[in-house]
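Quick review question:
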């Protein structure tokens, strides 16, 4: 089994894992649903269940019609950007420090998201994180498929060259889809955090090898001897 000290590439989710969500995704979804004449309450359970998935995929499932899905996705991104611009986004406690400590340990850290690139960039700018890590990824950077597919994990593996094998990757997130993407990529460590959408049972059921209270615990975990 891979030793924690052998983890060379750490892929961290953003909203709910390193960035406080505070219900912003649900608020932006409600705005998007209203924009296309849909009832926000009708789709909210699916939105909650699929936190971490590419947002355009969520809208395709809910609305079927590609034109309507694209319109809803654009409205979602605009609404979320407005919330970010209004100062309603913040780093989770200890998140930046965790990234910096992981980097100091000699590991490469990548931030990934299910949001589109403009939204991801707006969040990074709002937090002052533009230069925090060497690579950030959204679904479009990995061919268009977001979580639960392994594509963003494998793209990080290929583009950074930080690890010699997928077993040297750690994937960390707050949703079952984060866990599935790590498992499907063959990551050596798949850790769930309890600062976002899903609870311990959901994370474990999706394949989490570890469940942490927050990402702040990750550097200490990885510094330990192997399991």
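Suggested answer, residue by residue:
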């Amino acid at each position: 089994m891979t030793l924690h000290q052998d983890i060379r590439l750490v892929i961290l989710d953003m909203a709910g894992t390193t960035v406080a969500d505070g219900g912003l995704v649900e608020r932006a979804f409600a705005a998007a649903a209203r924009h296309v004449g849909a009832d926000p309450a009708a789709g909210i359970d699916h939105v909650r269940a699929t936190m971490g998935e590419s947002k355009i995929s969520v809208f395709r499932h809910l609305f079927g019609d590609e034109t309507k899905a694209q319109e809803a996705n654009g409205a979602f991104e605009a609404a979320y950007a407005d919330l970010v611009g209004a100062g309603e986004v913040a780093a989770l406690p200890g998140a930046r420090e965790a990234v910096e400590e992981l980097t100091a340990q000699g590991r490469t850290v990548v931030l990934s998201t299910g949001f589109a690139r403009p939204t991801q960039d707006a969040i990074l700018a709002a937090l002052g994180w533009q230069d925090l890590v060497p690579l950030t990824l959204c679904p479009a950077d990995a061919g268009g498929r977001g979580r639960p597919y392994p594509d963003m994990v494998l793209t990080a593996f290929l583009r950074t060259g930080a690890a010699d094998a997928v077993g040297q990757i750690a994937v960390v997130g707050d949703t079952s889809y984060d866990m599935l993407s790590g498992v499907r990529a063959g990551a050596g460590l798949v850790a769930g955090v309890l600062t976002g959408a899903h609870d311990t049972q959901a994370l474990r059921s999706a394949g989490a090898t570890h469940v942490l209270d927050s990402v702040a615990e990750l550097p200490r975990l990885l510094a330990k001897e192997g399991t």
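Why it works: The chain has a mean pLDDT of 90. The chain has two domains: 4-21+90-223, 24-85.
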